[in-house]
Amino acid sequence: MKKILILQPHEDQARAIAKFLKSYSQEFFIVGGIFGDSEDTQSIPYFDKLEKVSADFVFEEKNYDIIVPTASFSTNAILSTRDSIRIGNISFDRNNIQVFDKLPFLDKVEKLQIPIPKTYKNFGEIHEFPVFYKQRYEKGGGSRGIIRSKAELKALSGDKSIFFQEFIDSVGNYDVGFLAKDGIIITMFMHRALYNWPKPGGSAVVLTELYNKKILEYSSIILKNMKYSGWGLIQFKYCHKRKDFVFMEVNAKFWASIEFAFLNNPVFLKELFGIHYEPKKVRCIVFCNRLANYGFIEYTKLMLRYSSCYKLFFPESIKKLFLNLAPVDVKKNHSVLEKMGKK
Description:
By secondary structure, this protein is an alpha+beta fold. Helices cover 31% and strands 29% of the residues. The protein has 3 domains: 2-82, NAD(P)-binding Rossmann-like Domain (Rossmann fold, 3-Layer(aba) Sandwich); 118-166, no CATH class; 173-325, 2-Layer Sandwich (D-amino Acid Aminotransferase, Chain A, domain 1), CATH 3.30.470.
C-alpha cells in the first residue's frame, strides 16, 4: 500500500483528490498534513489519518511514497527546498511559481500580445471607477475586491500588498485546468464559472463545461512561453469592450473546483496517480458549501435555477446556511463557539 501525504487537507481540492483515490483504488493510505495550528484536526472523509506537520517532517520523503501540495502555501513551502515536485508522470517545476509575482508576469503575458486588464502600479494613475484589486504576490487567499470611489481607494492607500486593475464587467470567468510538460498541454478541462464566493473573484460556486478555441490558444501560448511543467489553472474574463478574452492569472497549484475536471476527464488522475475510471460527463456543477455563503434566499433561488446540475455537498454546507440565517451576534461569536467545540 502506498502512503500518501496530502498537505492542507481542508482545501476542497485536497478533499477531491482523497475522494477519488479512495473511490477508485485500494492501494493508498492517505494522511492529511496540517501546518501548525492553522487548521483543526478533526477527521475528514476519505483521509485515513490527520497529522500536524512541520517543514522538517514534510520534507522527509522516506516517510511517504507521494507528497501532494494542494494550495499556494504548501506548493511554495515545498519548492523553497527543491527544484520540483513529482507526482506520477507529472513534474511540477519551481519555474512555475513565477506566476505568483503577478505584476511582472502580467507584463510578460502582454508582450505575448494576449490582452490583459489595464493595470495600475500606483494610486495616482487611477481616475476611473470601479477598479479591481488583488494581491501582488500569491500566498493563498488574501484580499481582493472592487473599489467604486476615491474614498474607498483612499482607505486602501497604505496597503502595499495589493495592486489595482481595470474592472472587467462581465459575468463569471473562463478557466482552463491542465497538466503540462515542457510547455505542452497533456490534458485539460475547460469550464465557465457563473458565480463565485467571495463574489468578486473567489472560488467557483456554479460552473458549466465549455470549449473555446481562442481561450485554448491563449493558454497554449502562455504555457509554451514559460516552458511550464506541472498542473494548474489559467483564468480569463470576457471583455465586451475589446470583444476578446482577457487574461487574469495562472493558478500554479491544484484548483478549488478540480472535482469538476476529475468527473469529466479521468486522464488527470491517470497521469498523476495511475488510477482508472469511467468519466461521468457532468455538464454543470454546484458547489453547495460555497453557495451557502450567499444566504438562504439566494441559496434557494440558485438551487432551483440549477436544479438539473450535479450537486456537490460537504458537511459544513448546512452549518454555513444556518449561520447566514442567524442573528448578527451569533455570527460574531461563531469563531468562539467553534473553539469551545474543539476543546
